[in-house]
Design goal:
The protein is 45% helix and 17% strand. Helix 1 packs across helix 11 and helix 2 packs across helix 3. By secondary structure, the chain is α/β, with parallel strands linked by helices.
């Protein structure tokens, strides 16, 4: 079998990872992408690490049946909770995670104030805490757990008046004393970026991990000689653990509207 023609599996707890999928598809337009949203079990950010690892193993089993050549974990929480175990259990399969773009945000100026928005689990896990500690000399890091935001985005209107009001309440003090940079530490959050840009001053910079994930995927495919041939036409197919028409319509809508 010619694995260069095989698809790439991309998954998230729900629809948020479509923000990463859009960047992957733009950077690797000849690849076949299978996107799996675990919408039945979303959100992951309020689950235990053990629960998240179990969900991820089930998704990986699904992708293996589709004979994928690589997997992208398009979810910060799942990357932090499950990536190491999945790689150890599947050494033959390139598995790429998404990381909060804290380091580039910490380098935007001389000791900038950096707000990290993420799910409660992402902020709680050792993987994030270890990374944050290494950057303390470079920036003033402020973490903000955002319970409830993923659910609002999953409802399908990420920049509604309801979401704006939610963000204004959540951000509170951060809007009165704005940071130099905001890290979107969940792949759902780029979908509310238009509202965040309205709430924060123009000088505030925003960072997410999608571009870095795309570069890492390309590197791994090149290393394994798995890049699709230039003549191949790319495609995107969506799957959902809910498997209902409304979810698939939302996935298509978000894919076409993603920046």
């Amino acid at each position: 079998m010619n694995f260069n023609h095989s698809p790439i599996g991309v998954f998230d707890s729900g629809v948020g990872g479509i923000s990463v999928l859009k960047v992957l598809h733009r950077e690797l337009p000849g690849e076949q992408f299978l996107y799996y949203g675990d919408t039945k079990n979303a959100p992951y950010g309020t689950k235990t690490p053990e629960e998240v690892l179990g969900y991820c193993r089930e998704i990986l089993d699904f992708f293996k049946k589709q004979q994928v050549k690589a997997v992208v974990i398009a979810c910060n929480t799942a990357t932090a909770a499950a990536a190491a175990a999945l790689r150890a259990e599947n050494p033959e399969l390139p598995i790429i995670g998404v990381e909060p773009a804290i380091k580039p945000a910490a380098l935007v100026g001389s000791h900038p104030k950096v707000l990290v928005m993420a799910t409660p689990m992402t902020l709680h896990l050792d993987k994030f805490r270890t990374l944050a500690k290494t950057l303390v000399p470079l920036a003033d890091l402020i973490t903000l757990p955002c319970p409830g935001l993923v659910e609002l985005i999953e409802a399908g209107e990420p920049n509604s008046a309801q979401v704006r009001a939610f963000l204004a309440r959540l951000l509170g003090e951060q809007l009165r004393d704005p940071p130099d940079a905001v890290v979107l530490g969940c792949t759902h959050y780029p979908f509310v970026l238009p509202t965040l840009r309205e709430l924060f001053p123009e000088k505030t910079l925003f960072f997410d991990g999608a571009e870095g994930t795309a570069r890492q995927l390309r590197r791994r495919l090149q290393e394994e000689d798995l890049l699709a041939p230039p003549s191949l036409e790319g495609s995107v197919r969506f799957f959902s653990s809910k498997n209902d028409p409304e979810t698939y319509l939302l996935m298509q809508k978000l894919f076409h509207s993603a920046p």
